[in-house]
């Protein structure tokens, strides 16, 4: 959740996102934690919060990639989307996701 809060705290970064996928598959879900409601309000429709049974780390990661590809690449061109990766800061995430080839 800290990565999502970081993304939401920077208006320039948050304004450039089309989606942030959070795949929650634990028994200690993040939707009840302090700050989640505020983060959800800040990110608004950009936040895609998904719950699923615990399928291990690879299962959660795969679901995030699947949803992002399925939902963010269909139809007319849109802004690139981002997966919230806890190992990257928002500025690193922004730089890596928005690099032009």
Structure description:
By secondary structure, the chain is an alpha/beta fold. The protein has one domain. The chain is 46% helix and 12% strand. The protein is built from 5 helices and 3 strands, in the order ααβαβαβα. It has helices at residues 2-9, 11-15, 36-43, 56-72, 90-97, and strands at residues 20-24, 47-51, 82-83. It has a 3-stranded parallel β-sheet. Helix 3 (36-43) links the parallel strand 1 (20-24) and strand 2 (47-51). Helix 1 packs across helix 3. The longest helix is centred in the middle third of the chain and has 17 residues, at 56-72. The radius of gyration is 13 Å and the shape is globular. The N and C termini lie far apart (30 Å).
Total beta strand runs: 3
State the share of residues found in helices, binned by percent.
40-55%
How would you state the average pLDDT, rounded?
75
Shape descriptor reads globular
Order of helices and strands: HHEHEHEH
Helix run count: 5
Largest sheet: 3 strands, parallel
Poorly predicted tracts of residues: 83-90
In brief:
With 101 residues, this protein is α/β, with parallel strands linked by helices. It has 5 helices and 3 strands; from the N terminus they run ααβαβαβα.
Topology, element by element:
Layout: H1 2-9, H2 11-15, E1 20-24, H3 36-43, E2 47-51, H4 56-72, E3 82-83, H5 90-97
Parallel strand pairs: 1-2, 1-3
Helix pairs in contact: 1-3
Provide tags for this entry.
101 residues, alpha/beta, three-stranded parallel β-sheet, 3 strands
